[in-house]
Design a protein that fits this description.
With 251 residues, the chain is of the alpha/beta class. The protein is built from 9 helices and 9 strands. Strands 1, 2, 3, 4, 5, 6, 7, 8 and 9 form a 9-stranded mixed beta sheet that branches.
């Protein structure tokens, strides 16, 4: 079964990564919600896509440079005064719903890791009882490795997750090729990859499946793109228009 993940809570329908978007997503017939995690200067986990708050709030600055209290002075544009949610607040919205989590571990704007963030994410997922309802993703293999290590330190196992997925950009695919990507996955013992939806074909799937790798999609934002994901049978895909993906789901 191919699962639908509402990307940033359905960012073409509602203000992305907002509590309102998440509450609306929780009502939908989708399997997952996708969101991004950053860390404030005082080590609070918050859900926001960009490393800075410039694009989506009435403030400016890098999340890494702001304390949580400083961050809370700013509101998300397009909402009725909402602040950027914490990871805990986001979990609380979905815990009573049927919608599981597809969490992306982010880095600072320059690509550097947030100190100790993977450990805090692991602890939060375990404390909330949501570990087994969570898929963890990142564009950084080293962040996935750090998360697995942190999970073990908290007494958890990677097998408890819904998935551990390397997000791959079209640029990296062009630079390394499929065989180069496979070598990178093997080096980090990761068995799942997410490719941009328009880069996935039957031949591409045959290559990855033949090498024991599960394939997910991302950026399937139209009905036609969602239909292709269902037809190809990817494990899951993200979409900014979960309503169109639901309508495209085969009966």
């Amino acid at each position: 079964m191919t699962h639908i993940a509402s990307h940033r809570g359905g960012s073409h329908l509602w203000p992305e990564n907002s509590k309102f978007a998440f509450a609306e997503t929780a009502k939908l017939e989708v399997e997952m919600v996708e969101f991004d995690v950053h860390q404030t200067r005082d080590s609070r986990l918050v859900v926001h896509h960009d490393a800075s708050i410039d694009r989506m709030t009435d403030g400016k600055g890098a999340i890494a440079d702001l304390t949580y209290d400083e961050l809370m002075r700013h509101v998300i544009l397009g909402t009725r005064g909402e602040r950027i949610p914490t990871l805990g607040e986001t979990i609380a919205i979905f815990e009573p719903s049927k919608v599981d989590l597809r969490l992306e571990i982010k880095t600072k704007a320059e690509g550097n890791a947030y100190e100790g963030m993977e450990s805090r994410i692991a602890a939060e997922l375990m404390l909330s009882g949501m570990l087994k309802r969570s898929m963890v993703t990142s564009f950084s293999l080293s962040r996935l490795e750090a998360f697995v290590e942190a999970l073990g330190m908290h007494g958890g196992k990677r097998e408890d997750l819904l998935g551990l997925v390397w997000l791959c950009s079209p640029l990296l695919l062009t630079q390394l090729g499929s065989k180069g990507l496979l070598a990178s996955l093997n080096a980090y013992d990761i068995r799942e990859i997410a490719l941009k939806a328009d880069m996935i074909s039957a031949a591409v799937l045959d290559f990855w499946r033949g090498n024991g790798i599960t394939v997910h999609g991302w950026a399937a934002h139209t009905r036609e793109a969602a239909q292709a994901m269902f037809r190809l049978g990817v494990a899951s895909f993200t979409t900014d228009r979960p309503d169109l993906a639901i309508a495209a789901r085969p009966a």
